[in-house]
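Why do we care about 3D structure at all? Because function follows from shape, and shape follows, mostly, from sequence. That is the central idea of this module. The next example makes it concrete: a single protein chain, its amino acid sequence, and then its structure expressed as tokens.
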Amino acid sequence: MVTVLRAAGMRFVIYTDDQQPAHVHVYGEGEARINILDLTVLSNRGMKKRDLSVALVIVQENQRLFIEKWESIHG
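And the structure:
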């Protein structure tokens, strides 16, 4: 597990043993998985819509960082 970013009270994590598609786990009040290539929500476990919207903006703003980190972990 690699914490890539902390922002807006949330933690953005990439797991070293995860599978495609390239995605980030977002932890705050609840958990969501967001595809870092097309910014789709893969799952949402208890995260409020407002927090999920903020998380999506953060992933979009830092998309290059997440892609580079995913590629460095998963090849």
